[in-house]
């Protein structure tokens, strides 16, 4: 499999889907509630249609897992799979906060090998191929080498921050409340933060693209127990999120353990 070709296709698809999202962002759209404060908009669905057409048509015998598409278990029998979130950060989108991305991951076996994240409003694009490199807005990027918990920049959930979940560490960590799980991963990969973490479960489509990019940029990702992620599994739900520059990973896992 030519992963560079996969990467380039994913970048083009993300930009096309992002253009559709931007059109809705600047106009009117319908919002429905999927439950548990999980909105769905016309932009999510338009992006999903574009991604499915562009990516599945190019690689027809590849598995498919999307937040907005009915899961087909045939993906489990495929050696390759796409895992996408057509619009990660829909809540921010509906509130007019430009912290959301199109997220695309290409899975080889059970590992995320290619990732692309695109914010169509800020026009930030993060991408990576594991073992080759990572790019931020087309330029090579690498995670930081900040090795201390003190002063580490942590992109965190606004909701969790507002509930005081980080209060015991607020004088130690440089907390940056930010929308979209995937967007946070991109910021870590680009060296704009040292870590992002939450003990709350997250789905594969929230994190797979970001996991590939952080790994490609020299960082480390795991669940809250420090175990590496395995993708294209029957259950897409993952036990917590820890994405870091690598150097602060164990220290962040320690914070997560204290958080409970």
Outline the fold blueprint.
Layout: H1 3-25, E1 31-33, E2 39-41, H2 42-58, E3 63-66, E4 80-88, H3 90-95, E5 101-108, E6 111-119, E7 124-129, E8 133-136, E9 139-141, E10 153-156, H4 158-162, E11 174-177, H5 181-189, E12 195-198, E13 202-203, H6 204-216, E14 220-222, E15 237-238, E16 241-244, H7 249-259
Parallel strand pairs: 3-4, 10-11
Antiparallel strand pairs: 1-2, 4-5, 5-6, 6-7, 7-8, 8-9, 12-16, 13-15, 14-16
Q: What's the architecture of the largest domain, going by CATH?
A: 2-Layer Sandwich
Please report the total strand number as a whole number.
16
Stretches where pLDDT is under 50 for at least 5 consecutive residues are none
Q: Alpha-carbon distance between the termini?
A: 41 Å
The percentage of residues in β strands lies in 25-35%
Number of helices: 7
Domains, number: 2
CATH class descriptor name of the largest domain:
Alpha Beta
- N-to-C order of helices and strands: HEEHEEHEEEEEEHEHEEHEEEH
Largest sheet: 7 strands, mixed
- Average pLDDT confidence is 96
**CATH homologous superfamily title of the largest domain:** Fructose-1,6-Bisphosphatase, subunit A, domain 1
- Classify the helix fraction into a percent range: 25-40%
């Amino acid at each position: 499999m030519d992963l560079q070709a996969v990467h380039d296709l994913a970048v083009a698809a993300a930009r096309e889907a992002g253009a559709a999202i931007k059109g809705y962002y600047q106009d009117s759209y319908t919002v429905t509630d999927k439950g548990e404060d999980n909105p769905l908009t016309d932009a999510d669905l338009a992006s999903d249609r574009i991604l499915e057409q562009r990516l599945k048509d190019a690689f027809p015998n590849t598995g498919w897992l999307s937040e907005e598409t009915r899961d087909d278990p045939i993906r489990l029998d495929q050696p390759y799979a796409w895992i996408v979130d057509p619009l990660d950060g829909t809540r921010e989108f509906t509130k007019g906060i430009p912290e959301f991305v199109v997220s695309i991951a290409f899975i080889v076996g059970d590992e995320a090998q290619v990732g692309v994240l695109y914010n169509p409003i800020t026009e930030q694009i993060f991408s990576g191929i594991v073992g080759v490199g990572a790019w931020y807005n087309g330029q090579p990027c690498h995670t930081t080498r900040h090795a201390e918990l003190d002063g580490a920049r942590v992109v965190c959930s606004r909701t969790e921050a507002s509930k005081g979940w980080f209060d015991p560490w607020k004088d130690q960590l440089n907390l940056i409340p930010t929308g979209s799980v995937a967007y946070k991963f991109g910021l870590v990969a680009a060296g704009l933060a040292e870590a992002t973490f939450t003990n709350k479960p997250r789905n594969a489509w929230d994190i797979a693209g970001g996991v590939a990019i952080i790994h490609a940029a020299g960082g480390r990702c795991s669940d809250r127990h420090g175990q590496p992620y395995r993708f294209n599994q029957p259950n897409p739900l993952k036990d917590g999120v820890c994405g870091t520059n690598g150097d602060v990973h164990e220290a962040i896992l320690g914070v997560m353990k204290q958080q409970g």
